[in-house]
Design brief:
This protein has helices spanning 7-20, 47-63, 78-85, 100-107, 143-152, 167-179, 191-200, 210-218, 266-280, 283-291, 304-325; strands at residues 36-40, 67-71, 93-97, 119-134, 158-161, 184-187, 205-209, 223-227, 253-261. It is of the alpha/beta class. Strands 1, 2, 3, 4, 5, 6, 7, 8 and 9 form a nine-stranded mixed sheet that branches. Helix 2 (47-63) crosses helix 8 and helix 4 (100-107) runs parallel beside helix 11. It is globular and about 65 Å long. It binds D-malate (MLT). D-malate binds at residues 42-43, 46-49, 100, 162, 166-168, 190-192, 208-209. D-malate binds next to helix 2, helix 6, helix 7 and strand 7.
């Protein structure tokens, strides 16, 4: 004999079934079955945003979903990193961050997250050279003249950056150490807006990634003095390296990587790493990065292990330098 089961009982039963299957949690095998948000810790239109948008499309294609880029500015990238550290560990919120992930522990004594403990790494993306650039009518013409000018006018010269924790701020700090000066810093939400002000003459100079400056250097909209890498940059053949000009303290490349919250299942991490690997072999990504003065990370660096090792090594490198400088973000 059949007995009618009341609807309310059926609802309760289906809730119990869901709970038994893991409280409705998605199966990593189905990942991704929704849009992924890729969080950029600086303003739209800047270098991190540019690299992100380049890789987002081929990654999305590989994963078979949409990738939505979200710019979360503030505190040199630490606001965005904090947001992703606290996100659900389901692979739907991914952070791109650069060298700032390794400088933040030295700069922010009360940092709300631990870069090594609170994230899983996905892989390295690119290592971008920086350039030392100035407003078009800034008096110095060479790096040597820049040194003399900055030393003589240290009380009036302004140095733009993307806030404490940004690569531009770190590079500016190295310049100040090299020249033995303490300049007036002008912080922005990213070097995208900083570059606009540099072109407009509102600030004097800054250190910024080629992925933001190459076009404006080539068009002559800004003045450029040097690249901060040991090797010259093919897209900017006229620029000497800082080492060639004797600025040995100012050597820095801006490495980028992708992160997810620490409890994200390995199966999801593997899928994201695979998609990043495919994106970095995309010819359009390779060509666009070359035009912007950089290259995709080599395949052996596009792994969680290589990325974690880089993060650890960079934290060990920068923390004592930052502590010695006395600079702090709060
Ligand atoms: C930085 O200085 O860290 C970057 O240029 C930030 C950005 O992407 O705007």
């Amino acid at each position: 004999m059949h007995r009618r089961i009341p609807l309310a009982t059926l609802a309760t039963l289906s809730m119990l079934t869901l709970a038994a299957c893991g409280g409705g949690e998605a199966d990593p095998a189905d990942y991704p079955d929704d849009d992924i948000t890729l969080v950029v810790p600086f303003a739209a239109g800047g270098p991190t945003d540019t690299v992100t948008r380049l890789i987002a499309e081929p990654m999305a294609e590989e994963l078979g979903t949409e990738i939505v880029v979200q710019n979360v500015e503030g505190a040199g990238g630490t606001v965005a990193a904090g947001q992703v550290a606290d996100a659900d560990p389901d692979g739907y919120e991914v952070l791109i961050h650069h060298i700032g992930m390794s400088t933040a522990p030295g700069l922010y004594p009360d940092l709300a997250y631990d870069p090594l403990e609170d994230f899983k790494t996905i892989g390295l993306v690119t290592d971008v050279p920086m350039t030392i650039v100035a407003r078009p009518d800034f008096e110095p013409e060479t790096l040597e003249e820049l040194a003399t000018y900055v030393e003589e006018n240290a009380d009036t010269v302004t140095l733009a950056n993307a806030g404490v924790g940004a690569a531009s701020q770190l590079c500016g700090l190295l310049i100040e150490q090299q020249l033995g000066v303490d300049l007036t810093e002008v912080p922005y939400d990213g070097t995208g807006p900083a570059l606009t002000d540099l072109v407009g003459g509102q600030v004097d100079f800054m250190c910024d990634q080629t992925t933001n400056t190459a076009g404006q250097i080539q068009s002559g909209d800004i003045k450029a003095y040097a690249v901060t890498t040991p090797e010259p940059v093919e897209a900017l053949p006229d620029l000497p390296t800082t080492a060639e000009a004797g600025w040995t303290d100012v050597e820095v490349g801006v490495w980028h990587g992708l992160y997810v919250p620490a409890d994200t299942p390995d199966e999801i991490v593997e899928k994201l790493t695979g998609a990043l690997e495919v994106a970095l072999q995309d010819q359009n990504v390779i060509d666009s990065m070359a035009d912007l003065g950089t290259t995709p990370s080599p395949a052996e660096d596009v792994t969680p292990d290589a990325h974690t090792a880089k993060l650890q090594e960079q934290i060990d490198l920068w923390t004592p330098i930052i502590e010695e400088s006395g600079v702090t973000g709060g």
